[in-house]
Structures are given as C-alpha cells and as structure tokens.
Amino acid sequence: MTKPPCRLAEWNDTAVIAELAAKAFDQNDLCGRYMHPERHKFPGDFVTFWRRDIRNHFFEPNVYFVVSTVDESENGSSKVVGAAKWKRQGRNAPEPTQPWATVLKYYSINLTHTITSRIWPNRAADPAKSNCLSEAFPFFAHHWCGEREESWFLDMLSVHPDYQLRGHGRALVEWGKEKARMERICASTTSAEMKEEFYNKLGFVEVGRANVGPLSGVLGGVVMFCDEP
Question: Which of 90, 96, 121, 182 is deepest in the core (most CB within 10 A)?
C-alpha cells in the first residue's frame, strides 16, 4: 500500500478538518455522549464547536495541524480526508519566532470566538461539562513527567469514514513519531475507546488512564506512550 501524502494544514483547510472531526468523534464517548449530548439535535453546532477549537489553536506556538490527502482529479488537485493535531510539549519545547501578524491573528481569533460563543452558544453541548478536560487533567498529568516530560502529543486524529483502513491514520501518526524520533523524545496520546489496538500496532503502550477524577466512567482515555518512536 502506498503511503498517503501528508502536509501541514493551511487556514483554508480548517473547515474541512472540523467536518472530519465531527464525523470521527460523533460516537466518541467523551466528546460525543458526555460533552455533546444534543449533537444529533444540533449537528451544525457540533461542527461549529470543532471549527472554533481548531481555529483557536491554529496559530498557537508548537501546535501543528497535519492533513492527509488523496488525488481528486487528473489536474493534480487533492482532497483532504484525514487530519491530526500534534503538539510539542515540555519545558524544553522550542519557542518558534512568529511574525507579529501571526501573533495578532492568534489573539484576535480567540477573542472573536469568545464573543461569538456567548452570542451563539453551543446548543449541542452540556454547559456543565465545558471545562471537564481541564478539571480532569491534574488527575493524570503526572504521566508526562521525568523522561516523558518532553513529548510530541497527538491531541486529535480523524479520518473520513470512506477513507479509513487505507493508511491515512497511520501516516498522520507517523508524522508526529518522526518529529519525536528526530529529537530523541517520546510520542504520546490518549486513545479513544476501541482504538488502543491501532496505537499498539504503531508502537504505543498503555501507561495509565485519563478517565479518572471528573471523567470516571467515561469510556476510552487510555494514556499511551511510544518511548522509542
């Protein structure tokens, strides 16, 4: 099987990435049932949640959105069918120099989304669960310490249902693993339910759980590391 091509995402890709994420996480216990119980009643709001989240982080330092593509026609155009969000985390993470225009975009986009989310709240979501991830993180943050403090973290992975089992997910994971390999640090992720075997095949092993504390009872949440990418 030919490895699907991957590239860094562009701003114009963000709407497509949001659609992919909404499809991929519709049946996810955390992002779907738990955080967005009304997503089927308000599907557009669920997509808007992902679009806001992706755009809020798009210009964030050390955050990289990567997409996988397929050739769409004979004229060389391509179609985005998979996406991943990787983050280089740790105290020794490089501090990329960004133009002032990029910094301004980052803050203006976040401000805009803060205002619009108050005017048009996410009707698909349970407001009581909006901060559940940040509230739960202290219960499992210890997994990223010591030799594992420096890490390339896979925060999101989504592939269009029509293009699954064609190597797109693997290619997007390998993109970040290669970054980790170049720095001789680990790669990490928290697996959604029923996805542990996929990551096992790519060299990741379970080291703990993230469905603890406020997230107790939520499916998935396996903390996985690939110490030798």
Answer: 90
